[in-house]
Amino acid sequence: xxxxxxxxxxxxxxxVEAIADLLTRGFVGRSRDYWIQGLRRQAxxxxxxxxxxxxxxLEDDGTPVGVLLxxxxxxxxxxxxxxxxxxxxxxxDPAYRNYAPLLTKIAQRHKDVTYLNISPAPWTWxxxxxxxxxxxxxxxxxxxxxxxxxxRWSKIEVISQHAKAIEGLSxxxxxxxxRHARYNCLSLVCRTPQGTFPFILQPVRIRxxxxxxxxxxxxxxxxxxxYAACAGRIGRLLLRFGKIxxxxxxxxxxxxLIGLYTERRGRKYFKGPHRPQLADLTDTELVLYGP
Length: 291
Prior knowledge:
Number of strands: 14
Strand order of the largest sheet: 1-2-3-4-5-14-6
Distance between the termini: 37 Å
Structural class: alpha+beta
Strand content: 25-35%
Oligomer: single chain
Number of helices: 7
Mean pLDDT: 91
Low-confidence stretches: none
CATH topology of the largest domain: Aminopeptidase
């Protein structure tokens, strides 16, 4: 069948309801409320000037038939500001799959942007690599932080979404922690004699068959060594919330921590000028839309 009125264009705020319907139809198991919440968060967040707020859509005579959600973020890379784009949810109605390359071509046309794919299914890994993407994260370490020794003379604080200033942190990191607290993440500060260290974690369920034990995902830390150093204090806090494990993106087991490392899941890819930092999933689909 030939569709003569199909075109690819940027998603606008007036398209949100129809895009939510399309994504609900395309992703079995995801409710419409799930998509509406994420799209609303995209509607209100800061987006680098000149880049789309939501992404791109295919429409046939005004009806949405395909979508690719994009999440653009400006990140400091040394003295310069780098643009990062999380290639998020993609769906095209089966009758229009031959138009799908229009979405991917327009979405990846900026050579100075670093593109991320943080949730590829294992069967897609070879396909992604043929498209020029390289892995920056090969696996996940499922740590049990409560079994680690807590640093001496340390304490940990839960950061409220309403916090105005956090002693020991810059205004930028303070805003990062409070913003993610509004996204239902757990924002923490661990204070030790060596310094003040920020962390962001998100509740997830690590599904293995019919078993899905409650856990946390490490969304942000300055570097993984700081998480390892503060893990004991973080783990004791998490036990109060009934959480035992913290999943950490990494490329090998974490020294000094008890847990399990696997490369069967968790691989993450990038394409572009800047290699992403491990343990920094701030402002990505995982946070805005949820696990």
